Amino acid sequence: MSSTTRPPAPSSDDPRPAWWVGAVGYEVYVRSFADADGDGIGDLPGLRTRLEHLAELGVDVVWLTPITPSPQRDHGYDVADYLGVEPAYGDLDELTGLLEDAHALGLKVLMDLVPNHTSDQHAWFLDSRSSRGAEHRDFYVWRDPAPDGGPPNNWVSHFGGPAWTFDAATGQYYMHLFLPEQPDLNWAEPRVRAAFEDILTAWFERGVDGVRIDVAHSLVEDPAFRDNPLLTNVSLAAATSVFERFAHIHDLDQPGVVDIYRDWRRIADAYGAVLLGEVYVLDAAKLRRYVTDDALHAAFAFATIEASWDATDIRDQLRPFVETCEDRLAWPLSSHDAPHAATRFGGGELGARRSLAYLTLLCCLPGVPFLYQGDELGLGDGVLPPGVAEDPIALRLEDVPGRDPARTPMLWEPSQGFGFTTGTPWLPFGTNHDASHTVAAQTADPTSQLERTRALLHARRALPALHGRTSTTWLLEDGPVIAIERGEEVLVALHVGDGEGPATLVLPEHARLVVATDDRTVLIDGELTLPEDAAVIVELEAGTEVEGRL
Ligand code: NOJ
Ligand code: MG
Question: What is the pTM of this model?
Answer without folding.
Answer: 0.96
